[in-house]
Structure formats: C-alpha cells, structure tokens
Amino acid sequence: MTVWLAMALYSLSMSISPGPVNLLALSNGLNHGLARSFSYVSGATIGFITLFFLTGISVSYVSEVLPNIMIVLGSLGTAFIAYIGWQIAKTSQVSKQKNSKDASSFIDGALLQWLNPKAWIASMAGMTAFQIESTESLTVFSGIYFIVCYLSISAWALLGEKLQGLLNNPKKTRRFNQAMGWSLILIAGYLLIKLFD
What we know:
Elements: H1 2-16, H2 20-32, H3 34-57, H4 59-89, H5 106-114, H6 117-129, H7 135-162, H8 170-195
Helix pairs in contact: 1-7, 2-3, 2-7, 2-8, 3-5, 3-6, 3-7, 4-6, 4-8
C-alpha cells in the first residue's frame, strides 16, 4: 500500500506541474469550456499512459537508445509545442461556440504527449525509480497514473473555464492567450536547450 501511495504522489507531481500539455488544457478550457476540452484531455491522458506502459515493457532497450530517441522526439516535440504556442498566442477571443472546431482534439493531446520530452523523462524516471520489473507492477502503476493524469489535466481545463468570467473582454482574453502562447514557446526553447545539454 505504501508503494502505491508513493506511485500516486509521483504521478501527481509529474501530472499537475505546469508544462505544455497542461498549458494547452488551460487554454482550451478558457477558449472552449471544460466539456469541449475533454477530447483533448482524454487524448493527452491515453497518449501518455500508452507511452508510459510501452516504456515500461521495453525499459532496458529504450535505456540503451534513449539519447537518440530523445534527440529526434525532443526536436519534433519542441517544434510542435512552439507551433501550438504560436496558434494560442494569436487567438484573440474566447470562442462563443462551444462546438468550435478550433479546440484541440484527441489526436492533438495524444501526439503532444508522444512528442513531449517531459513525458518521456517522466516515464523513464518512473520505471527506474520504482524498479518496475513485472507486468503486474507496471499495470498497477499505469492504472494509478491514468487516474491521476486524467484528473490533473482536467483540473487545468476546469481552471481555464473558471477564468472565462475574469477574462470577459477581448483585450484581457487576447493578453491571456498571448501569455499562454509565449509561455509554450519559451518552454519549447527551454526543452530544446536541455535536450542538447
């Protein structure tokens, strides 16, 4: 039971901390509402858990080739994160249509996780820190992580929706979107620098 609690706390610290996936959830919540954000939240959660589980299965092989994978995925990921940041930064107002097609999709969420160096590092660190060696342990850890990750990303989307009342005019919304967009671009730059350290 203690190991499960430690797994849950690790999952929470990695899932709730600010990063590209959570900032995009926040932006989606603000611009499209919580309900319209669930497709993205689901994609990001399932995308991460798939990555996490497959990493656990192939941890020894991935460990040997991780630097090459990280460089390729990190480069693609930072470019994608910067692109998403730019799209958010140029959004000028909250969508009045909750069914707007501008909301990030399930595929966007899943793809962002697979291209996010933070997700790869969280997966590898979790496997090595908890010394996951059996499929049973991996399945338990993945189940815990799924619940915590889903709730954490949803919380960011809910926070975004709650901000709609505070950012109720186009000028405030534009400033917020610019701040979120440029934050993602800065995160992409930081991740790129760390990738080549």
